[in-house]
Amino acid sequence: MPLPAARTPLAHLEPAIALGALDGRYRGVVAPLVDHLSEAALNRARLHVEVEWLIHLTSHDVVPGADHLAQGEQDALRALVLDLDAAAIAELKDIEAETVHDVKAIEYYLRRRLVEVVGADRAVALGELVHFACTSEDVNNISYALMVQGAVTQVWLPRARALLDQLSGMARELAEVPLLAHTHGQPATPTTMGKELAVLAWRLRRQLDRVGGTTYLGKLNGATGTYGAHVEAVPGADWQQVSRSFVEHLGLTWNPLTTQIESHDWQAELYADVARFNRVLHNLCTDAWTYISMGYFAQVRGQGTVGSSTMPHKVNPIRFENAEANLEVSNALLDVLASTLVTSRLQRDLTDSSMQRNIGTAFGHSLLAIDNASRGLAGLDAVPEAMARDLDANWEVLAEPVQSVMRALAARGVEGMTNPYERLKELTRGRRIGQAELVEFVRGLGLPAEEEERLVALTPATYVGLAPRLLDHLEG
C-alpha cells in the first residue's frame, strides 16, 4: 500500500528538516565545512574580497585623488566580515531578492555599511570604489579559492592526516604479525599485516602530499580578462601589478591569463587528487572488510552498537561499508567537478557557477567517509591466532622459496637442480601439503647441507622476507 496522500507535510516544520543526509543525520561530522563551503560562507568570502579590494585601492593610491580610509575605518570594514551573523545573512538575502544578483547584493550591502563607517558624505565618493572595475567573477573566483583553501587546509587535510597517522600506528603495531597473503583470492607468499597496512598508508600519504601542495589561483582582470575598464578609468596605473599584489595579499597565486573566468584548472587538479585519495581509502575499507570476514580482525564489542536487527551474534563492519558508500558519492561529484569546470563556452557561461555549489557536498561525503573509516579502524583487534591457522594450513606456499633456492644453485652449477618450477608444481598445484610432505621433498633434492637445513626450518609464518623492515619507509 502506498503512503497516504493526506499526511502531515514535513517541508514546513520547524526546525527545518534537512533534505540530505549531510545536513541531517551526519551534520555533526561535517559541520566544520559549513564555515568554508556553505552559501553563507560564500557570501562572507565575497564580502571579504570586496572589503579588501576597497582597502587596496585606497591604500595604494590606485585611483588618483580618491579618499583614504583611516586605520580605524579599515578595521571597522574588516569587522563586517568577522562579525557576519544571522541578521547580516538575512539582510543579504533580502537585497538579493531585489537585485536578483548575488554579487550585486554584496556590493549594495557594503555600500550601506560604508555609510555607517565613514558617514554619508564621504560614502558617496568612496562608494564608487566598491566593486570598482570588477566583473562578478573577479569576486567569485577569489572567493571560491579562499573557501576551498580554508576547507582543505583547516578541515579536510587535518582529518585525513589524522586517519593516516592512525593507520600508520596500526601498521607499526602489526609489523611482525605474519599473514597469509592472497593474490587473486588464492593463498600466496606470506607477508605481515603491518606491511599490508603500510602499503595503504604509503599510498594515502602520497595523495595527501599532492593535496597539501595545491596551488590556489586567483584573478582580477575584468569582464574579459583585458583590464579594459581599469585602463580606461585610470590609464596611469600599473593594473597588472595592482591585480597581482591584491591576489597575493589574499594568500593566493596570481593567474595572469584568463577569460572572464579564472580557468578552474587548479580546482580540477585538486579534485582529482582528493578523488584519488578517496579511491585508495576505498581500497583500505574493502581490504579491512575482507580481513574481518576472514577472522583476521575482530570488531571490538561493547561499543553500544547493534550488528543485526535479527541475529544477535553479529557485529557488522558498518563503518567500512558506510565509508565505501560515501566515498563513491564524493567521487561521483569530484569527478564531474574536475571534468566540467575546465571548460567554458568562449569567454563565459554559468555552468561553473551551478557546479561549484556542489563542492561542499563532495568534501562533506569524503569527510564523513574519513570519519567512518577512522571509527572502523579504532574498533578492530588483530587476531594473530586466526592468521596463524591459515598459514599453517597452507604449507604449499613454500614451493616458491624452495624452487628459488634451486634456481640459484643451478645458476652456480650445482647438479640435480634442473626444472625446479616444474618439480614444485607437480608437488603442490591443486592440492594441500603439510610440513611432513614438504620436508620429505626437500630432503630428497640433494641440496647442499646449509641450504637444506635452512629450507627445512622455514615455515609459512617465518617466510615473510623483509616485510617487518619495510615499515621503516613510513618514517620518511
UniProtKB/TrEMBL annotation:
InterPro entries: Fumarase/histidase_N, Fumarate_lyase_CS, Fumarate_lyase_fam, Fumarate_lyase_N, L-Aspartase-like, PurB_bact, PurB_C
GO biological process, alphabetically ordered: IMP biosynthetic process
Residues in Adenylosuccinate lyase PurB C-terminal domain copies: 344-464
UniProt superkingdom: Bacteria
Gene3D superfamilies: Fumarase/aspartase (C-terminal domain), Fumarase/aspartase (Central domain), Fumarase/aspartase (N-terminal domain)
Domain Fumarate lyase N-terminal, chain residue ranges per copy: 24-323
PROSITE patterns attached to this UniProt entry: FUMARATE_LYASES
Pfam family for this entry, one: ASL_C
Keywords attached to this entry: Lyase, Purine biosynthesis
MF annotations from Gene Ontology: N6-(1,2-dicarboxyethyl)AMP AMP-lyase (fumarate-forming) activity
Pathway annotation from the record: Purine metabolism; AMP biosynthesis via de novo pathway; AMP from IMP: step 2/2; Purine metabolism; IMP biosynthesis via de novo pathway; 5-amino-1-(5-phospho-D-ribosyl)imidazole-4-carboxamide from 5-amino-1-(5-phospho-D-ribosyl)imidazole-4-carboxylate: step 2/2
SUPFAM superfamilies assigned to the protein according to its UniProt record, in alphabetical order: L-aspartase-like
EC nos: 4.3.2.2
Role this protein plays: Catalyzes two reactions in de novo purine nucleotide biosynthesis. Catalyzes the breakdown of 5-aminoimidazole- (N-succinylocarboxamide) ribotide (SAICAR or 2-[5-amino-1-(5-phospho-beta-D-ribosyl)imidazole-4-carboxamido]succinate) to 5-aminoimidazole-4-carboxamide ribotide (AICAR or 5-amino-1-(5-phospho-beta-D-ribosyl)imidazole-4-carboxamide) and fumarate, and of adenylosuccinate (ADS or N(6)-(1,2-dicarboxyethyl)-AMP) to adenosine monophosphate (AMP) and fumarate.
Protein name, UniProt field: Adenylosuccinate lyase
